[in-house]
Amino acid sequence: MNIVEATRVVVDVLPDALIVSSLGTATSAARLATDDGPHFYLGAAMGSALAAALGLAEAVPERQVVALLGDGDFLMGASTLWSVSAWRPANLVVVVLADGAYAITGGQPVAPSLRLAEVADALDGLAGVTADSAGSLRAALTSIDRPGIVEARISERVWPGPSPFVDPAEVVRGVRSNIAAGP
Ligand SMILES: Cc1ncc(C[n+]2csc(CCOP(=O)(O)OP(=O)(O)O)c2C)c(N)n1
Q1: Domain count, the chain
Q2: What range(s) does the Thiamine pyrophosphate enzyme TPP-binding domain occupy (predicted)?
Q3: Which domain holds residue 158?
């Protein structure tokens, strides 16, 4: 599975979800898979995407929210997991695109092993599961309790687009219009 395939599965299974994507290739993949749809693309602020997604999930409880994160971004903001465990938004699913590398800055290794599903399961009120194929990711997104974390294991490196510049004002306008339009 590569990150474009994984992101397309997310969009296919949860077509009405608001996506919050972290900087790097997660944002490129989300823009590609949604035809630059009105989602919350973080073009910078490494480590903050899960916190942004948690805030959005709380602010818009009637919508499904997907945090689509690079593993580097996730680790930089990992303490937010404890906030997710505390607040337990029933509309938040976290998909970590675990390619084991900081792809956009040259492929430096992230960590020897993430074991995110086990970490999530160890925390109160959080579910964790791993997926290593499009089929298992589809099943995970369909069945995981919320809030839940899916460690999507990425085995094939692809380049979904250039390092994305996203205009924050435009992003906010798009997300507001998405929320106003409803699911
Ligand atoms: C605080 C901070 N440190 C470092 C960077 C540089 N940087 C930008 S993207 C990135 C890699 C992100 O890795 P990951 O989330 O795994 O996404 P990928 O590049 O693999 O898509 C790094 C290190 C940054 N933007 N901010």
Answers
A1: 1
A2: 43-109
A3: 3-181
The token duo for 127 is: 């579910």
Pocket lining: 24 vs ligand 1, CB cutoff 6 Å: yes
- Residue-level length of the chain: 183
Measured CA angle at 1 (ends 96, 12), to 5 deg: 70
- Check which CATH number belongs to the domain holding 110 and give it: 3.40.50.970
> What is the number of the ligand 1 atom nearest to the C-alpha of 44?
25
Q: Which residue has the tokens 């995981």?
A: 144
Q: Report the DSSP pairing between strands 101-102 and 108-109.
A: antiparallel
Would you put residue 107 in left (φ > 0), alpha (ψ -120 to 50) or beta? left
Sign, Cα dihedral of 130, 26, 154, 82: negative
Specify the residue with its C-alpha closest to ligand 1, atom 7: 105
In a mutational test of the pocket of ligand 1, which residue from 80, 96, 104, 154 has the highest number of ligand atoms less than 8 Å from its CB?
A: 104
For the chain of 183 residues, list the mean pLDDT of each consecutive stretch of 10.
97 98 94 95 94 98 98 96 98 97 92 91 96 98 97 92 81 96 89
Q: Is the CB of 72 under 6 A from ligand 1?
A: yes
Q: State which H helix or E strand residue 40 sits in.
A: strand 40-41
